[in-house]
Amino acid sequence: MRAMVMTDFGGPEVFELRDVPKPAPGIGELLVRVIAAGTNPVDAKIRAGGSWAGITPPAILGYDASGVVEAVGLGVTEFKPGDDVFYTAEVFGNQEGTYAEYNVVPAAIVAKKPPSLSHFEAAAVPLAGGTAWEGIVRRIKLRVGETILIHGGAGGVGSFAVQFAKASGARVLATAGPENQETLRDLETDVPIDYRNSDVFEVVRKATAGRGVDAVFDTAGGDLLAHSIPVTRPFGRLATILGPSGDFTQAYLRNHTIHGVFLIRERARLEEMTPVLARVRPLIDEVLPLEKVAEAHRRMESGHGRGKIVLQVAA
Amino acid sequence: MRAMVMTDFGGPEVFELRDVPKPAPGIGELLVRVIAAGTNPVDAKIRAGGSWAGITPPAILGYDASGVVEAVGLGVTEFKPGDDVFYTAEVFGNQEGTYAEYNVVPAAIVAKKPPSLSHFEAAAVPLAGGTAWEGIVRRIKLRVGETILIHGGAGGVGSFAVQFAKASGARVLATAGPENQETLRDLETDVPIDYRNSDVFEVVRKATAGRGVDAVFDTAGGDLLAHSIPVTRPFGRLATILGPSGDFTQAYLRNHTIHGVFLIRERARLEEMTPVLARVRPLIDEVLPLEKVAEAHRRMESGHGRGKIVLQVAA
Description:
Two copies of one chain form a homodimer. With about 325 residues, chain A is of the alpha/beta class.
């Protein structure tokens, strides 16, 4: 089968199109014909030097996939050949990723593809959308009528977060660079904030009449979470998908709760998201052929992405 | 009336017994004859230089009280003279504290004294017990069968935390200095840990067979919370009553939730605690006459307290 193999750790040029053996599903596993593979910033971090992730070159990267079940392993009863599915794969050791024509995956972390989404759209959802769902819905438990500040609202995770927050009935303040203000408006952000040309926290103060927000979701990192504490109301909930830095000594005086969010693969979350995906459109920056994965990585590493880049794997 | 007045910011010697006018209750307020006043570490911090708390000497400090309603202000229907009550007062501006024979307090933050407790015991509960309740029950939401690590289990807040955790059906690991190991055992701590003579986190690892705890409650501060992250299971909940320092970058990888806890006065929490106070005994270090408040402060500032110090106000 065709696969884009990471031949070494390094720059985007380490990918090479190779013909590799088609894998076979083991007990409880599915063999999936990948139609579309999603790319994620973590792919680029691993490519740049990811022995910490338990991956050794040559290896096939890629966490997200949408495709068709080609064969099922022993003990699999919930899927049959021909089913459309989507998932975030585990990639380490002998578990190869989704930058390939075929992928083997434990059935337990796979769900039926939402009927409302194309394979390209579905491949953009599992990791980024799942992380946003985990933060906004399961951890922050955002409620109708609340106000949330989302750092990085035009990015892969952030664009899902803005939409899940809107779908939850909340008022959304979100930040992005000047080039992505239009994107924030397209996502129906109530208060789009240009973090380069304005004082984010002053805008938040004014937009909330000095009362601050009920919740914060940080997809950008650094000390943004710490700086958000003074504009978050007492008993507010903050979540981050990155290791936060800065000074948190005031958080206890405001009775804040801070959630760290890191995606654990599971079918249940994919199924929970499915009905909501009928009204939330994955924000897709570009669809590129599998062979152009290096280009996808370059764009993700620029930090100015607008949603997700998806690889077309099947012809 | 008699009151121990803080004549200036400074050492414990700034307290002076004075005869001051008896206050009168305003709309929605109670005049309470204080029988016992609880002392708290924050009293000593304010005495040492507490303009940050909105207090200017001369002033009467003291947050906790248990006593008898002497008179009620206009609009108060839920209390009548003669009722036994307990509460944590607000102290700032013209609101004086409980180191005095009488105290005026908004009825909204007062509850009936639990019948299971003496006035001395009840005066030890509101601030420290309320903070422990807020952390263990309302924020961490500790459940039967879970395991919790409590830093500072023999202190004012910690001794309530250990007991509320045990009453919740949890397994409790708690730390204290060598002089308070006996106290931890008296509180039925499952794994008492001497933080001076053992490696706390190594003990936790061994006692949990390497799996770590479900929850952490930190009453001691510094970087203890940050160091607790590696011994807390994925999706674990941590709470602190102080501004935490240290490195929290790993917390998101473990999907941890960190709660900052700072007591807000309210009647509801006092009433929630009341049935549980029938089986949780406030740990009282010593009962001293009101005039010996300086001694109480010296003992609290030593950092080796064993539970609470209560002042006997009424003869």
